[in-house]
Each structure stands twice: as C-alpha cells, then as structure tokens.
Amino acid sequence: MMQLPVYHVTIEPEWIDFNGHVRDAYYGLAASYAVDGLMDHLGLDAAYRESSHCTLYTLEMHIHFRHEVKASDELKILTSILDVDRKRIHAGFTFACSRLAEPAATADMMLLHVHQGQKPASAALPDAVIEKLNAVKLSPDARDALGPLSRKIELKRR
Amino acid sequence: MMQLPVYHVTIEPEWIDFNGHVRDAYYGLAASYAVDGLMDHLGLDAAYRESSHCTLYTLEMHIHFRHEVKASDELKILTSILDVDRKRIHAGFTFACSRLAEPAATADMMLLHVHQGQKPASAALPDAVIEKLNAVKLSPDARDALGPLSRKIELKRR
C-alpha cells in the first residue's frame, strides 16, 4: 500500500501554555500542517491550486487529547485516509510522541474540495486524486484499530 | 442569568492561510483563549492555579466550520455552559462574525479539572465554581438552539 508522508511537528516555544504543556489548539495546528503535506502528496499542491482555483476546506475537526506533550518531546503525526467520495476526504491523525507508548492524541477531519470563484462552491476531486486516495484508504479493520475517533461530546452520568 | 464574558478575537496576519481565510486550527486557538477568559471569570485564574496546583485540561474539542473568516472580519466568541459534573465542564462556543447573519463556526469542548502533582490527576471542582457553572448552564431548549454541535464525523452515502 502506498505510504502517506509522516509529518514531523516542530513544537514552537509559544505553543506551551500556563499548564506547562502544548496548548490544545496547537495539536490542531500541527494536524492542519499535516493536511498541507497530504495535499502536496496528493498533487493538490500550490501549482494545482493556482491553475485550478481549487483547494480543500475543512468542514469539521475533532481532537481527542490523551496525553500531555511537553516542549522537549518529539512529536510526529501519522495521517490515514478513512473514507473518500467525489468531493470529500475523511482523514484521521495519530499523534505519536517519542516518550509515550500510546498516541498523545487522535484526530479526524472532514475535508471538502472547493472551487474558489466569486463564491466558493464544492467541486469534484480530480480522478487521479480519488485513485490515490482509494489506494491508501484504510480497511475496516485498520480503521477500527485507530480507536473510536470522533463522537458526540457529552457528559454521561455514571 | 449571569452573563459569561464575550471573547473578542484578534485575527493575527499569520492566521491567514493559502486559501485566503483564517486557517482551521486558529478557530481552535481563539476558542482556547476564550476558555482562558472563562477560567478567569469562574475564579480558576492564575492565583487559583498557583495556590491549588489545579487547572483545566481539554479532553476533547470539536469544531464545525460553517463560513470562511477573512483578515478584515470582526470575530467574537460567545461561550455557553452545556453541562457540568463534579470534575468536568462541557462548554460550547459560537463564533459570531460581523459580516454574517449565522455563526461562522460552532465548537464544543470537554474540560477536566486536574491537580498537577507528580502525575496529573482529575480533581473535584471547588463548590463555588460548580455553583457558578450551574447558574449559567443552558436550559435544554437554549442548548438545542445552538445547533447539533459535535458528532461522529463520517461520510454518509446519499
């Protein structure tokens, strides 16, 4: 199976908050940068965006924070393709921290292919991109192994 | 009903990405700053954190992106308390953009009260804080009016 690029996160000093760890939102920023890498890998790169006026917009993002990440940690993001249709990509992210046996976090995003004209409108992904995505799309078993991923956030009384 | 503080977002130039709008993750950063304001408002401020060694950790974050936000937009975040128990706060966020009739985005987070010792451990919130939270907690109707909020992210075939 074709391998997706691994994103090596640079933890900036300003990412550390008053709790002494990486602030929640910067996990999202790192995943957002991982999507930039994914776009380049798929051929949805700057040249494509300029010639086609098409790009990806994020519709939804969910992050599960499992462990603190510290300034001194080495952090990388493994990206998975969970699902794809004509216009949308459901991508998963596993945050692997050198210090920890289990993921520091998991995340998933729904991405929409958009044509940016007068008014942005959803547009079909190029066939070649859909082919690449289907070639790396996880099997149901591999998908389950990533964990529960997103869900309705709620307090369940115990 | 006691009013929660409104967070006025400062859109930094580096928040604008190659799509010409605020990058997805910076909606999360703005909401994270809104939580800092909520903590101050509730008395979970720097003095409290220093004396108690307690703080809030984010367990989950979900963002629904509905409209683009541009560099020139005025953006503010309205924070709601959706639910609360002894240790956890379920907070909702509505991103109000001056240019738009409907929210630019909605988000929700599950926050956990944590004692930061050798090893961080969940801890009961102070009674006074729980009282404040219950005083502003949304009614079921007001909660429904915020929209569907978080959910399992998935491609549904049509």
Write up this protein.
Two copies of one chain form a homodimer. By secondary structure, chain A is an alpha+beta fold. Chain A is 27% helix and 32% strand. In chain A, strands 1, 2, 3, 4, 5 and 6 form a six-stranded antiparallel β-sheet that branches. In chain A, strand 5 and strand 6 form a beta hairpin. The N and C termini of chain A lie far apart (43 Å). The interface between A and B is large, with 42 and 42 residues. Strand 2 of chain A pairs antiparallel with strand 2 of chain B.
Could you name the key traits of this structure?
six-stranded antiparallel beta sheet; homodimer; alpha+beta; 32% strand; 4 helices; 158 residues; globular
Largest interface: A-B, 42 and 42 residues
Order of helices and strands of chain A: EHHEEEEEHH
Strand content of chain A: 25-35%
Oligomeric state of shown chains: homodimer
Query: Would you report the number of β strands of chain A?
Result: 6
Radius of gyration of chain A: 17 Å
Give the biggest beta sheet of chain A: 6 strands, antiparallel
Secondary-structure-derived class of chain A:
alpha+beta
Distance between the termini of chain A: 43 Å
Morphology of chain A: globular
